[in-house]
Amino acid sequence: MDIGQLQKEIVALKHQKQIYEAQNRLFETFINRARSSNDPKILNGTMQNALDIAKQFSGAEKGSLFLLDENGVVIDSILTRNETNEEKRSDLIGKALEKGFAGWIKKKLCAGIVTDAETDERWITFPGQPYSVRSALGVPILRNDTLFGVITLMHSLPAQFGRNIVDFIQQVADQMSLVIENAKLYNELEQSKDLLEKAKQSAEKYSSALDDECQKGKKIQNDFLPHYLPDVKNCDIGSYFHSALQLSGDFYDLFELPDSHLGFVVGDVSGKGIGAALFMALTRSLIRIFSGAFTTVKGGDGFGITNDVFSPSAALGAVSLANKYIAREHGEDGMFVTLFFGIVDQLTGKLSFVNAGHEPALVVGKNEIKQSLKATGPALGPIESATYEIETIQLENGDLLFSYTDGVTEARSETRAFYTRARLESLLKYGFQGTATAFLETIKADLFEFTGEASQTDDITMFAIRWHLRY
């Protein structure tokens, strides 16, 4: 091997060593920046480091670097004039890539040399430029044959960049692309993390506000339920209510009516949550308003406001009126309500009721289930012209009327089995002789033993009224 060939190989090895060292410096700086939680400009810092290395190896005095996306749009840059404001900066970048030397590199996808900027038409000298340029070197940063960026190196003297420097800087730029790409991906990851964190904070703030509103709604809804069970003549009363969500579609109500009559309602709105809660409030109010406004009028049509004798049948007409209102005003909402509305005469034990598509209420005696009070009409809402039969039964001394929602019979065990009406009736088939509250505690104990650790999927409401003469 002759001396000339050996010298060429030595120069090539030196270049490869320099390229390797340049890449190591870039990676080391990038990794150190990435490990620092206090450095928010990983990508821009890596670009500046790459430009500094290129200037060092080429002997350039100044330089610029444009980072491009897959559409050739500048996504980050380092300009020679770093103090430039954003508007001026965008203008300089646009002209440089449209008519200048950097634009020529971008278009040709190859390195280029400006030997003398005063005579090379590819070079643009901007007005008010605070530095002098006579020669320039431009190289594309390529990654998998895709343009990743453009480096432009400058010197104030002409003819400062030779062909050997061009090849060397191109190799350095090729190594830079890997590091800059990693910095770009890291930067995008950090931005995504920031966006996710902001989205998380926003979601938590919204969730907290929504939870506050739901808590207010729950309090308002609870205010609709009876605050206490009154001590009324000849009647022992018990109730249990537990919603599956913060807001419920279940409800029960209890109110005194004229002539020693007691009205009670157990209802279930389709669905859950805020919509069901609002519908519950509406239905409860309609039943109260309509049932309290009607009594029998002698010689009249059976309905009207009067101080005459109270009629349970007239009051139960509230169900039909409520249905017409709901169907007419809210039929398009697709919601419906099932309910059991009963009126008991505290003095005689006579019970008049309407069951609007609700679970059958049970009359439980001392030794057996005596009756199952099934539906006397459809649920409220779907059919405006629906009719509702009013039925009357006689409670015997000690009989207990039990009404509930399907959250009881459709409660699920840990194996996803239903509690069922059959199990409920089997529990009560031998009757019951205790108080209304003790009665509900018996059912609750069996129900929750069945469900175990399974989550509650529906609202649970139970109401019991035991009629017994107090001599």
Helix-strand layout with pairing:
Blueprint: H1 3-35, H2 42-58, E1 62-68, E2 74-78, H3 86-98, H4 101-108, E3 112-114, E4 135-143, E5 146-155, H5 163-224, E6 235-242, E7 250-257, E8 261-269, H6 273-292, H7 312-316, H8 318-330, E9 337-345, E10 350-356, E11 361-364, E12 369-373, E13 391-394, E14 400-404, H9 406-409, H10 421-428, H11 436-451, E15 460-467
Antiparallel strand pairs: 1-2, 1-5, 3-4, 4-5, 6-15, 7-8, 8-9, 9-10, 10-13, 11-12, 11-14, 14-15
**Topology order in helix (H) and strand (E) letters:** HHEEHHEEEHEEEHHHEEEEEEHHHE
CATH class of the largest domain: Alpha Beta
* CATH superfamily (homologous) name of the largest domain: PPM-type phosphatase domain
In total, how many domains does the architecture comprise? 2
Low-confidence regions:
293-307
Shape: rod-shaped
Number of contiguous helices: 11
- The helical percent reads 40-55%
Largest sheet: 5 strands, antiparallel
**How are the strands of the largest sheet arranged?**
2-1-5-4-3
Q: What is the CATH topology of the largest domain?
A: Phosphatase 2c, domain 1
Structural features, described:
The chain is 42% helix and 21% strand. The chain has 11 helices and 15 strands. The chain has 471 residues and is an alpha+beta fold. Helix 3 crosses helix 4 (101-108) and helix 5 (163-224) runs parallel beside helix 6.
Short description:
This protein is an alpha+beta fold and 471 residues long. It is built from eleven helices and 15 strands. It folds into two domains: 189 residues, Beta-Lactamase; 253 residues, Phosphatase 2c, domain 1 (4-Layer Sandwich).
